[in-house]
Structure prediction request, 121 residues.
Amino acid sequence: MQRRSTKQRETVYHALMHLYHPTAEEVYEYLRSEAPSIGRATVFRNLAVLSEEGRIVKLFFPDEVAHYDANTDGHYHFICRHCEKIIDLPATQKLSFPKSDRFTVDEQSVNFYGVCRECQK
Ligand SMILES: [Zn+2]
Ligand SMILES: [Zn+2]
Prediction:
């Protein structure tokens, strides 16, 4: 059982490397043909474990479902307002975490919004 769950986790992880910032649902759709034995709940659970382990990053965008990223190097994202595509951008500077007694910061994410080249055509 342990072996099987480890193998499934790697399958989910590899799906994420193929897909570009997919949602959990998109990972599941992809695996339905690649690995039909893996159910939806297994996909969702393994994505949660992988992000807890820090092997993938869970991206939150306001009012949207979470997307997952196999690129764990701190980088920025560009999000197209038109097609909602997410494009990786290199981080140009590391911001220092703000200090406050009202919250603790453990992560930063920088998003740029605009219209991608395809949508400009
Ligand atoms: Zn676009
Ligand atoms: Zn990314």
Q: What stands out?
A: The helical segments are 2-18, 24-34, 40-52, 117-120. Residues 8 and 38 are 7 Å apart (CA to CA). The chain has a mean pLDDT of 91.
